[in-house]
Amino acid sequence: MKKTLFHRLWRPIVAAFVGASTTLSFAPYHLWPFALLSPFILLLLISRQSPKAVLWTGFAWGLGQFATGISWVHISIDTFGGMPKAASVLLMTLLVSYLALYPALFAWLSNRFFPRLSRHRYFLAIPVLWLITDWLRGWVMTGFPWLWLGYSQLETPLGNFAPLGGVELVTYVIMLCAASLSYSVLRKQWITLLIPLVVFATGFGLNGVDWVTTSERSTKFALIQGNIDQALKWVPSQRWPTILKYTDLSRENWDADIVIWPEAAIPAFEFEVSSFLETLDSAARNNDTALITGVVNRDEDKRFFNSVLTLGMTSEEPYQYDVGQRYHKHHLLPFGEFVPFESILRPLAPFFNLPMSSFSSGDYIQPNLIAHDRQLAAALCYEIIFNEQVRANVTDDTDFILTLSNDAWFGRSIGPLQHMQIAQMRALELGKPVIRSTNNGLTAVTDYKGRITAKLPQFETGVLKAEVHSTTGQTPYHQLGSWPLYLLCLLTFVVAWWRSILPAKLNAKQVS
């Protein structure tokens, strides 16, 4: 009995530890080989097993990955959610378990439809199934495409595939390498080890390809990191001290072309401080400067928006209160900015009634912000993880990708550092520098290859001054998006499916 129980449990237990090790490949650890080794070991664990058995192995792997990889979410629930400890742990467990369903689905599909240890299983089906289940995780219930394996490869040759097909293509080639390694071990076909070598060599060769050109036109930025305590941010008595702190830091940096405040830097509705904003707009114009800030809004229909406002040297007339002329966040954070099934959940706990948790969505595609004759494609906080949305908003005339954020919700955890890593990938994919302004870090600037060129320390008040060059041209990913990759996946899957059912058909004919 004990031996049977051990036989059933050892694979899921090992898978949970292997999944947990995947987190080491992402920021702040950057031990990128774990992104290859972890799925490689998972593929070994699910080989020659029934679909039902691998369902639990895949689920355990997912539990390990997400329990460690998004542990920072618990800080916002526990510290700011007002829930009892037991309830917050339960909610976190439910979230991690939900996300673990996708690796479980991958394992089940792999062994249900491609059970044989064949080349078409490892070289065709497995990379496609992994990509499909990751895509589903990034789409179902508004999506949570965090911890895609491709994000771990920014500083490796595999990262150079990002301008071709985005983080999806990087993830695909990681899984192709992992599948090749597992096939080599299981079938003792060592010649297939050439596949990872060729993939890495190709990525190394792509390092010398510049898809875009650096423009001679540069822009001087001053990014204000206010380091406002999240627990005090929305306290009424702290409204004007917060606003004046940002104003004073900006006044010392009017020599910049563009001054940037973070997401919701103004802890008030725009209509409540319109007189102040009119004065701030005049000050920026008098100093030949543009100022961009996050602000919350309410329209005539009493809908709330998480917005971005431009002041000073913009394409607009002097400041007027007009909610329709703002960038409004489209992709809202579940529970943080809107509450699914709110009539049921809001009465249960303060967590479901956090400040500003009733936002409405802006349009999927919105005009670039114009500041000091530069065009900036905006992505507010959580939106930066949705690469296709960012791509759709970057035009031929876009100079920079702008992302404003407030990661103070997540304390001194790994979450903000992972968030920065994701923003770096957007720069690499689209060939545009990323300007990232946050409340308490990580405030930083990247070049068009996703390399951080300037940053502020976390949890300190400061001003990041940086001069950044625009770029011209388009990466292949910017031009075409993800559809060529998914078309390839469709064709690959059809071939794998055909190769899988062909032996059964031949056996049936021989029997008949």
Walkthrough of the structure:
- The structure is a single chain.
- The model has no long low-confidence stretch (mean pLDDT 91).
- The strands form 2 sheets. A 6-stranded mixed sheet has the order 5-4-3-2-1-12. Strands 6-7-8-9-10-11 form a 6-stranded mixed sheet, with helices on one face.
- The chain contains 15 helices and 12 strands.
- Strand 6 and strand 7 form a beta hairpin.
- Helix 1 crosses helix 3.
- The chain starts with a helix and ends with a helix.
- By secondary structure, the chain is α/β, with parallel strands linked by helices.
- It has 2 domains: 238 residues, no CATH class; 266 residues, Nitrilase/N-carbamoyl-D-aminoacid amidohydrolase (4-Layer Sandwich).
- It is an enzyme of class 2 (transferase).
- This is Apolipoprotein N-acyltransferase.
- Catalyzes the phospholipid dependent N-acylation of the N-terminal cysteine of apolipoprotein, the last step in lipoprotein maturation.
- It is a multi-pass membrane protein.
